[in-house]
Amino acid sequence: QVQLVESGGGSVQPGGSLRLSCKISGTTLDGKGVAWYRQASPGGGREWISGITVDNRPLYADFVKGRFTISKDNAEKMLWLQMDNLKPEDTAVYYCRLAGLHWGQGTQVTVSS
């Protein structure tokens, strides 16, 4: 059974940093794309933030480019999202996704003064 478990969320002030982690089990990352999404409100949709393609190219949404950095370790089955210079509008539940199919349970990020 494939499972993704996010961690690292929390509350920070504007300008602060957080590092989200996603631990994957039940499968490998080899040859699979990975991504981070966020959902700002329970009734809203999930917004794509960043991903790593199957040929290992990192991609970013314009609104996080230069502030967020995605990385992964296939051997450790880990995915990370380093978030710097956080803004109040980054407040959301953050989800990792594997192969366009599997989701984690999400981790809350709150940016507020």
Tell me what the structure shows:
By secondary structure, the protein is mainly β. It is 0% helix and 50% strand. The protein is built from no helices and 11 strands. Strands 2, 4, 5, 6, 9, 10 and 11 form a 7-stranded mixed β-sheet that branches. It has a 4-stranded antiparallel β-sheet with strand order 1-3-8-7, with no helix packed on it. The chain is globular and about 40 Å long. The N and C termini lie far apart (40 Å). The relative contact order is 0.33.
Helix content: under 10%
| Subunit organisation of the chains | single chain
Tally of alpha and pi helices: 0
Q: What structural class results from the helix and strand content?
A: mainly beta
Mean pLDDT comes to 97
Q: Strand share of the residues?
A: over 45%
- Measured between the Cα atoms of the first and last residue, the distance is 40 Å
Count of strand segments: 11
Main β sheet profile:
7 strands, mixed
| Uncertain residue segments | none
Written as H for each helix and E for each strand, in order along the chain, the element string is EEEEEEEEEEE
Question: What integer value in Å does the Rg equal?
Answer: 13 Å
**What is the approximate shape?**
globular
Relevant terms:
four-stranded antiparallel sheet, 113 residues, mainly beta, seven-stranded mixed sheet
Topology of helices and strands:
Layout: E1 3-7, E2 10-12, E3 18-25, E4 34-39, E5 47-52, E6 58-60, E7 68-73, E8 78-83, E9 92-98, E10 102-103, E11 107-111
Parallel strand pairs: 2-11
Antiparallel strand pairs: 1-3, 3-8, 4-5, 4-9, 5-6, 7-8, 9-10, 9-11
